[in-house]
Amino acid sequence: MKDNPHAMTSVKEFRIDAAATDDELGQGSFVFTDDYSVFDWGKMPDEIPDKGASLCAMGAYNFELLEDAGIPTHYRGVVSDGEVVPLSEADEPPREMAIELTQVPDLPHDGRDYDYDSFHAAVGENYLVPLEIVFRNTVPVGSSLRSRAEPADFGLDHETWPDEVVDLPEAVVEFSTKYEESDRYLSRAEADDIAGVASIDDLEAVARQVNDVVTERAAEADLVHEDGKIECLYFDGEIRVADVVGTFDENRFSYDGQEVSKEVIRQYHKRTQPEWVEAVAEAKEQAKAEDVADWRTLCERDPEPLSRGVVQAARDLYAAGTNAYVGRTLFDAPSLAAAVETVRDL
């Protein structure tokens, strides 16, 4: 049994100090790297300096905001000089976050047929809910929601999606799979089934609370919080927010109409490496048609490295955005306005 899913991630490493059991949470930590991933590719050819510390600091700041708002989480603090401390007591930008661990068994599958009954049978009532809970305040041009729904479904008076960001009258919450090779959006009934004993209504309520906290803080930093996601663990009858929350990788933010998130790099790849982006899409479609779980084995192209200037611009965006969000100069970086102008010209 895996103790936690996060060994699977491509941008943070995972350390176990004490494994979780059926009736107790364990302890461990995330160690954030400077790697990045787009289009579910996994580790890309470049690193973005300071990206790991940026995500760690922003995630820690948000967990502390959630705790202050009475929302339970798995966060214990950041690691500074070997000690677990609040973010405010870390002298340097932290790269390691101390967390509580839950149980995550393997998810057996035959092709694309996944056995969630076996997953839940292995963990009882201490487990990571195998869902991502997605919340959307706006519908940016790159949003997958545009391909799944019409503007009228949300009370909007557009016949088709316009070529600009659309503000939603109220946040939309959706559920998608977490451990399948290609994530898919779920109906509420499917999500309820996959969630196990955790209530879908409660998961949605927690997601809306998290969304409110992050949206409010973003506005104070002159950022617009467009969308994001959370993962949750279920323990002792309680839902707690897990993984990492409200970073430029998990969520989309904008500043003065310009994206300030991993979306900048995604869109840059779409413009400059369209052949690779197309090959990824084709491999995913082929995998679906052939019932192959790992689409990457079918992809005929690899991504090219970024130029040094693009890497620097991305680094400055992460660092400046984090400084603005946490209200503290953690990184030596330009102002957010200046960093945004640079990426606007990419």
Report Rg.
20 Å
H/E topology pattern: EEHEEEEEHEEHEEHHEEEEHHHH
Which range best describes the helical content: under 10%, 10-25%, 25-40%, 40-55%, 55-70% or over 70%?
A: 25-40%
What would CATH call the class?
Alpha Beta
DSSP E strands, number? 15
Secondary structure category:
alpha+beta
Q: What is the arithmetic mean of pLDDT?
A: 92
User: How many domains make up the 3D coordinates?
Assistant: 1
Instruction: Provide the CATH topology.
Output: D-amino Acid Aminotransferase, Chain A, domain 1
Distance between the termini: 44 Å
Second rung of CATH, namely the architecture: 2-Layer Sandwich
Count of helical segments? 9
Residues in β-strands, percent: 15-25%
Task: Please identify which CATH superfamily we are dealing with.
Answer: ATP-grasp fold, B domain
| Biggest pleated-sheet summary | 8 strands, antiparallel
- Which term fits the overall shape? globular
Unreliable runs: 1-8
